[in-house]
């Protein structure tokens, strides 16, 4: 197959994928009302092969979103409620001592809930740092190590973690290394009045619409490969590079960044943007990402990879507004 035929095949596959993903979004929208941006960002992260940190107050349908995504994407899923007394073995699994009919004893590994395709880590900041870190190896390396033995998690494998931004008592803030493992941070807002009215009417009756399955694990993996095959233009690449470097103290031309940002995004932020802009373009029926995609994904890709200094927070400097300004300049 020559380059022209390969390009034509890629275009045809992307067009078909766009139609399929439109159905995926529509089915998820049956269960989660008025959160089109949240659905799009979460789907973009999954199509990019990454993990998502969902940040929002209780009662905003975060669990409902994860359940709907698992059903529509055709993935096995599990939910773990993170609490202060949760132990790493409660997530990873543990070895138990068995005895066979001949009286011989041996250890058998009993897999924990992490061995699923879509894992919901509910209120992840409630657990201790030791338990939080139990997810790190699986999120990055797609396997876990228990008692010196490695066990692969299923593929595809995605962690959708939730975090309550309001209540901080008894919580353990996620360390920078773990935050960096999340491809995107998605803020889940309150619904507007019309959407909330629809929620009240449609979710308190006898019938509750259940989304239908559109994909399966293998089809999702193929879409993830397609995302990585999509071309990225030089202007988009330059915008991503400029945005990431401008948010990093020491290499930024913005004095506020150099003065008030304690630490900035590393190369993994640029990798996240390179993948996420392709996924967003595919979700919107386009064959290649545009500079607008970079601006739209700047905040979800960068805010959890940056930290303002204490003095900047005391002066009221807002990290979201700063990232938005940097994105506008990069575009």
TrEMBL record:
One of its GO terms (molecular function) is ATP hydrolysis activity. Keywords: ATP-binding, Nucleotide-binding. Transmembrane segments: none annotated. It holds the Pfam family AAA_3. Residues 48-192 form the AAA+ ATPase domain. SMART domains: AAA (SM00382). Belongs to the MoxR family. This is Denitrification regulatory protein NirQ. It comes from Terricaulis silvestris. The lineage of its organism: Bacteria, Pseudomonadati, Pseudomonadota, Alphaproteobacteria, Caulobacterales.
């Amino acid at each position: 197959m020559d380059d022209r035929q390969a390009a034509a095949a890629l275009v045809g596959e992307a067009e078909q994928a766009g139609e399929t993903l439109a159905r995926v979004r529509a089915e998820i929208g049956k269960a989660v009302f008025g959160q089109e941006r949240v659905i799009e960002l979460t789907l973009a992260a999954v199509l990019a092969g990454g993990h998502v940190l969902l940040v929002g107050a209780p009662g905003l349908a975060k669990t409902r979103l994860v359940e709907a995504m698992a059903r529509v994407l055709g993935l096995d899923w599990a939910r773990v409620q993170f609490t202060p007394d949760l132990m790493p073995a409660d997530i990873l699994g543990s070895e138990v001592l068995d005895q066979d009919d001949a009286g011989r004893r041996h250890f058998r590994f009993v897999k924990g809930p992490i061995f699923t395709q879509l894992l919901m880590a509910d209120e992840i900041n409630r657990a201790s740092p030791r338990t939080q870190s139990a997810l790190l190896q699986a999120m990055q390396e797609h396997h876990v190590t228990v008692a010196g033995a490695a066990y692969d998690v299923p593929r595809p494998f995605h962690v959708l973690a939730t975090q309550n931004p309001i209540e901080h008592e008894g919580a353990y803030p996620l360390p920078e290394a773990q935050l960096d493992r999340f491809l995107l941070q998605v803020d889940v807002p309150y619904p507007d009045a019309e959407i909330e009215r629809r929620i009240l009417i449609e979710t308190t009756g006898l019938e509750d619409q259940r989304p239908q399955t559109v994909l399966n694990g293998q089809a999702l993996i193929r879409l993830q490969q397609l995302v990585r095959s999509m071309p990225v233009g030089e202007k988009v690449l330059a915008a991503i590079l400029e945005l990431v470097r401008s948010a990093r103290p020491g290499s930024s031309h913005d004095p506020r960044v150099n003065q008030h940002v304690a630490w900035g995004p590393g190369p993994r932020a640029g990798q996240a943007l390179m993948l996420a802009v392709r996924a967003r373009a595919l979700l919107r029926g386009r064959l290649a990402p545009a500079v607008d995609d970079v601006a739209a994904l700047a905040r979800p890709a960068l805010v959890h990879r940056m930290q303002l200094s204490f003095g900047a927070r005391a002066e009221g400097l807002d990290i979201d507004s700063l990232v938005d300004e940097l994105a506008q300049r990069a575009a």
